[in-house]
Every structure is written in C-alpha cells, then in structure tokens.
Amino acid sequence: MAGLPATDFESLGARLWLLTRRAPGLVAMLLMALAGLGVSIYLTTVHYQGVAPVCSTTGLIDCARVTSSSFSVLPGPGKIPITIPGMVWFVVSGGMALVALLAISLLGASGAAAPVLAEKGVSHLSFLNVGPGGSATLIRLASGTAVLLDGGPDGPALEGALAGQLPFWQHTLDLVVLTDHRAGAIRGLDDAATHVRITQAADAGTLRPTREYLAWRDAMTHAGAAYTQIREGDQLRLDDTSTLTVLAPPQTLYLQRQGATSASDDLILRLDTPGLRVLFLGAADAFALDALAGSGESLSADVVELALVPGEALDLTGALGDVLRLAHPRLVVVCDAPIAPDSATARRRVHGETWTSDGDAATALGALIYRTSEAGTISLSGDANGWSLGG
C-alpha cells in the first residue's frame, strides 16, 4: 500500500492543479513574472544587437520605440537598457511567488501547521474541520497506511484539510470508508477521487440508492478503487496491528419503518490500534444506537466520535447517552452531522435553543468534550505507550 512515486506524472499534475486552486493569485504572479522575464531577455538582446524587435513597428503599437526612445535606457553612462532592471524585478517577484507556493504546498492551506515528517512508530488520528454540514476523519498509522472516513460536504475544504495533515509527498489513500449516504458525507470524497489515488473503498450498501450514493460509487470506480461492502461482524485489517471492526448496521439492513430511518443503516465502526480504541458513532440515529447498546458488544473506548448539527445539545437522556456510558471514554469528539445547517431538519434538531456548553455532559461522563465546529481540526498522536492530543 505504498504511495505513488514522486515522479508519477498524474500525481504531479493533480498536485499542481490543487496548488492552483489554493493560491490562484500567486500562480498568476509567477506566470506573469516568467512571461515578463522572457520579454525582458528578448528586448535586452534586441538592444545590444541593434535590430528591430519582431513585432509591429507602425500604427498604435510600435515596439521599436521600446528600444529607441529616450526612456529605453537608464540615465548615465553606458546606456544600460531599462530591460535589465526589469529582468531583476521579474526574477525577484517570480522567486517570491515560487517560495510562497512551495511554503503553501508544504504547510497546507489556510496556514495549517506543516505535517510532521513521519515519526517512527507514531500514528495519527485527525478529526478534520471541513466546514458545516459534514465531517471527515483521517487515520495515519505508523506503518504508512492512510484511511479516510467520509469526506464532508465540500471538495476544496477536504483538500485543504488533507493538505494540512498529509506529508506533501503522499498522494494515496489506502482506504476510504463512507459511513453515511447523505451529501454531507459524500461530496468531498467525490472530489478527492480526482486528486488522490484511492486503493480501496467501502460502505454498507443501501436498499434505496440515491443520486448522491450512485455518484460516490461512480467516483470510486473511475478512481480505480476496489469496492467492498461491509456490515456488522466484518473487519478491515489496516496493517499488522490495527483493525476497523464493523459494529453496525446488521447484515440485513433495516427497513425504514417502526422507528428505523435511513440513518439506522449508517456504519458504526471501532478502531483498534496500539494504545488506542476509538468508537465512531457518526450520525447514527436513536434506533441504531439503541440496538448497539443492547447488542452485548463491548463498547469500551478511549475516544468516541459522534456527529451533531451545530448548536445541537449533547443529550444523554436517550440511546446516545446509553452508548456513551457503556463506552466510558476519556474524550468525546463532536463533529458536524451531514445535514445542511440551514435545513428544516437541522432546525428541528436544534429546537430553537442556543447551545452554550457541553460542561454538564462532560461532568456526567467524566470525559473531555470537543467540537470541531468550535476547536477546528482535532488531532491525536501516539503509539502503544500512550496517545495525547496534538500532533
């Protein structure tokens, strides 16, 4: 599951295109500097050779005046053509633009901290801030395996978030998992498939394929990713020491009746890696969470990830509270549910209340609670000896 070699033309092209999208002004500045440098070199050559430039010399545009007017040389002895200082300016401005572009390429978008060079034996888990209306989670194992869970609602936002986490030479995701079939989980992945190589893709399938879901499957097919359908009891081995275990949905998906909804068939996953166990609940509904709480499955976890609409309170009185108490985590990460914040569904879930703090829930659970909508991207790093926030 190695990444693409640095000389791979497709990866280089994708990287340049991504860089152009992130900093179009700097790219334009560099291109104009190169063009200006070329023109300055040509006009300097024409000046010293004493020949007319190859362009119009009559009418409104008279290129010959560029090399023959009193303003074409610097004041003083030597008759140094003004194009030489022009060359210096274009070299300096183009060089500044190039340095800035290289810095953006290395540091990622929006001033994100530079992805640290791979530390031997250290793995990383990042709950990415990809804007309202969806979430994405990146797992980078010490072995080099890179896994992405969901993609958020926006391609450029996901690209920027990944650029802030992945080493600049890495252009491959070994596994992409779609846990929710709504647009807020899918659209970022559709776009990412055009910029990075995806080795394997997985989801739980669906009884009612939507246009968004079919677009996801089509994007993975065009990306050349091997597709796997996963459901309860299945396990994805990420490397020699790490696994993703599927806790839900069941092998036979729920029919949307008697309390079940489309979110009842969302994937619920457990990551087991040296020193850390993470429970990914996502935006699974109360029906699925109630079934999980009563399944008899061990839900203990160091970290629990869940998804709420921005402004929605963390309610511990229902099935979600039951699962969290069974998990007894040290850290709860609240990501954005794949629901448009201004939608009627979002307004119903917020109930017109203004969320102020998770303090009461944190006290009840004895855990730290962070929201990506408030804290931005939340990262952990560690190994078999322990994990910590940051990195």
What brief labels describe this structure?
about 400 residues, 2 domains, Metallo-beta-lactamase, Chain A, single chain, 8-stranded mixed sheet
Shape: elongated
Count of discrete structural domains: 2
Q: Give the CATH H-level superfamily of the largest domain.
A: Ribonuclease Z/Hydroxyacylglutathione hydrolase-like
Class inferred from helices and paired strands: alpha/beta
H/E element string? HHHHEEEHEHEHEEEEEHEHEHHEHEE
- Spatial ordering of strands, largest sheet: 6-5-4-3-2-1-14-15
CATH architecture of the largest domain: 4-Layer Sandwich
Per the CATH scheme, the topology name of the largest domain is: Metallo-beta-lactamase, Chain A
Structure notes:
Mean pLDDT is 83; it is low at 1-12 and 108-118. The protein has an eight-stranded mixed β-sheet with strand order 6-5-4-3-2-1-14-15, with helices on one face. A seven-stranded mixed β-sheet has the order 7-8-9-10-11-12-13. Helices cover 35% and strands 20% of the residues. The protein folds into two domains: 9-107; 120-389, Ribonuclease Z/Hydroxyacylglutathione hydrolase-like (Metallo-beta-lactamase, Chain A, 4-Layer Sandwich). It has 391 residues and is α/β, with parallel strands linked by helices. The chain has twelve helices and 15 strands. Helix 6 packs parallel to helix 7 (211-222) and helix 8 crosses helix 9. It has helices at residues 9-22, 24-49, 64-68, 83-107, 155-163, 183-192, 211-222, 286-293, 319-327, 344-350, 359-365, 372-375; strands at 123-128, 136-140, 146-149, 172-177, 197-203, 226-229, 235-237, 243-248, 268-273, 276-282, 303-308, 331-336, 368-371, 378-383, 386-389.
